[in-house]
Design goal:
Layout lengths: L3 H10 L11 E7 L2 E9 L1 E7 L26 E7 L18 H13 L5 E6 L2 H11 L4 E7 L23 H13 L4 H7 L9 H11 L5 H9 L8 H5 L5 E6 L4 H14 L3 E5 L11 H15 L19
Parallel strand pairs: 3-4, 3-5, 5-6, 6-7, 7-8
Antiparallel strand pairs: 1-2, 2-4
Helix pairs in contact: 2-3, 4-5, 4-7, 5-6
Length: about 325
Amino acid sequence: MIHGIGMALVSAAVQAGSAQPGATVAGEFDSNGVKIRFYAAGEGQPVVLIHGWMADSSMWGRDASGKTSLSTAGSEGFRFIALDCRGHGQSDKPHDPAQYGVEMAGDVVRLMDHLKIDAAHLVGYSSGSYIAGVVAAKHPRRVLSLLFAGQAPLISKPEPERGPTEKGPDTGASEVEIFAKAVEEGKGLGSYIMAVMPRDRPKPTEEQAEALAKWMFHGKDLKALAAAGRSFKHLGVTVEQLRACPAPIRFMHGEREGELVKEAVSAAHAALGRGEIKVVPGGDHMTTLLRPEFRAWLLEFLRSARGSSEAQTVKPGSPEGGSKP
């Protein structure tokens, strides 16, 4: 399950004005023909923040006007960098699904190249964890640490090892298809809201669902979001690939997270045989990021990983650190 509705609501719910004013600098670069927008704040070891489907960089913090603004309070020694994934926020929004998938991981690597960053800590939330997993699998020596939050990397078996009736990993494809078909039909997204609303939340009426959809998706490129969602099936990595990345790993999810996410996290943790799972009290997919424990445990993990990161740094363009996805 991707929880696209949750990510859209998280992006909208982040408290405005909570970040330090004037601390964030915006920039953009060409990533294989697609303009990617990013925001940076702080000084020190780089931490790349990767948002989930339907969200954007502002889910990590915003100023009073609603623009992305990253708080550096209590995070001395780190430089936070949040990008708008292609198809989201202020980045370009191609409608071709072939422009997504592994290209989204390529955007992260090319961002690092653009900023002349040898290696970085990666923090993925929701489907941002899929993207972080691909970067770690394909460019292991460019990763200082990995925090998979609100989801696990998309672990799959190599095709020859898969049984004839064995499916690939769950990517939330049914949720994506409900959204994509609603976009294609052009009849409004109330049906999508009704279909994917978490079971533990009150079911809206059709009128309420349509109103919520109009508010959530106002100004968003729906065809681009559909194309991005449909590409997630191409973000699978193997256990062997992830094990080849020596960076410290941590998983984090809310106490009230969906069962599919909890199962994916537990399975990934067991398969990799390292790292730990931190459970944010009272948090669900929409609120975990807003809980004080999330930031506290993120900073604690980054500090613990900082000491072991020197040996993992390589120059962009070297065999382990090339810029191609």
